[in-house]
Design goal:
Length: 153
């Protein structure tokens, strides 16, 4: 679901009212728990946190003029999505996340390759997302990215 916005706050304000609180909480969680070095911005039309060029000058392999994407979130037609590239690139982190989800009795995990879908805003496992956000530093992400993606491009 495309939302026209010039910044992250405008994006959240333009989302459906019933999802704004969850989107605000997601933003606050990422601001608080992501390790230092990630930079907040709109990326691909959604709130995102990236590794800026001053930390990773090579940028994103698909378009080196863009910073390296790490995590973003979006309001979609039927759900709120959290896109975490680190899970996609790291089988160990993916296994940890799935095991933690099951151990936390969070219900059925609705997930794509790097997209975690939340249809019920009241059942978002915030404590688990805090742990996920704090798991990977920019340096960790760069190393995983280079081993998982750069060798394939």
């Amino acid at each position: 679901m495309k939302i026209a916005a010039n910044n992250v706050d405008e994006y959240i304000e333009a989302a459906p009212a019933e999802r704004q609180a969850a989107l605000r909480r997601m933003l606050a969680l990422l601001r608080e728990h992501l390790p230092e070095g990630f930079e907040e911005r709109l990326g691909y039309g959604m709130p995102a946190f990236v590794v800026p060029h001053h930390l990773y000058p090579a940028g994103y392999h698909c378009d080196p003029s863009l910073p390296l994407p790490f995590v973003s979130f979006a309001n979609q037609k039927n759900f709120v999505a959290l896109y975490h590239m680190g899970l996609y690139a790291s089988p160990d982190d993916m296994a940890w996340f799935k095991e933690s989800w099951d151990a936390g009795a969070c219900g059925k995990l609705d997930m794509g390759k790097s997209c975690i879908r939340f249809k019920n805003m009241a059942k978002i496992p915030w404590a688990l997302l805090e742990q996920l956000a704090s798991r990977m530093t920019p340096a960790d992400w760069i190393a995983r990215y280079e081993s998982a993606f750069k060798s394939k491009s």
